[in-house]
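Tutorial, part two.
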Amino acid sequence: FSGLFIIWAGTRKTVTLIVNGNRSSIETHRLRVVDLLDQQNLYPAARDRISLSLSTWLVNDDIVRLDQAASVIIYADATLSYLKSIERIPANLLAEGRVQLFPGDRVLVNGKQVDPAKALPYNPVYHIQVVRSANLLVASGANTIELNTTAPTIAQALANQKINLHVSDWISRNLDEPL
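Running the prediction step on this input gives:
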């Protein structure tokens, strides 16, 4: 019986498990990557990325990384699209969804404006919205200014640019008109 205990004790190892960027050190007697993940109630899906093959035999100080794919819902140009991806950079997620970004466009992820070039923390679902910028020409006497804006209305676009209107100004369009 003591021989079995010695064999069992000899299988003990410390493995670093990184799941979606969260690192933990695990002491285990599990032999393979799949067994370790099962022990942690992690069941990789087809689009997940694993640093080692599931059948790899574990040794002390192994590092196992699991990046789980997120569901991505993209709303751009009055169109919804869906995908599953391990990508975390919004601009890359949009490219996977065949959505182009243009200068001045705003990107919202789960309702908050983000830098489309910076990686997001893991979330099981990302709702990505692209707010397209609009060009607005403002003519005042001999001066013409071209504004590139994502403001929802003409009034907000002018206010954002600190363009003050006066009672005597003539406006060719309704200030509350959506852009």
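The two ends are 79 Å apart (CA to CA). In part three we will examine how such features are distributed along the chain.
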